[in-house]
Amino acid sequence: MNRSMIPLLAGSLVAAAAMGTGCAASFPTPTQSLADAESAERSASELGAASQPKAQLHLQLAHEQIAKANAAMKNGDNERANGLLLRARSDAELAIALTRDQSAKTGAQQAAVQSNTQQTTNANQGAAQ
Hints:
Distance between the termini: 100 Å
């Protein structure tokens, strides 16, 4: 390599590094993703996901991922924050689905018990079966 190419090569490396840094910094702050994740987490909490064993883990994961995303945004790593927020939203929505599923199963069991009780009452009162 001749000496006249060294400054050119060094300049190219500096420009490439600056462009790489510029790309990372140009990712927009994921404010909508943050709002969506926090909303889903809040909904899961209000539905009672914290008291459902299957949903509780996903609610906790969502909470932790939102906290990590906030830290990533403070450090300027918006792309990582966005990924964490998408995962947080998914975990919170899964917690919602699991909570609703458990509530539906509980409701169905209660309805079956109520139906059986009513049938027994009807039979004891002489109703036709």
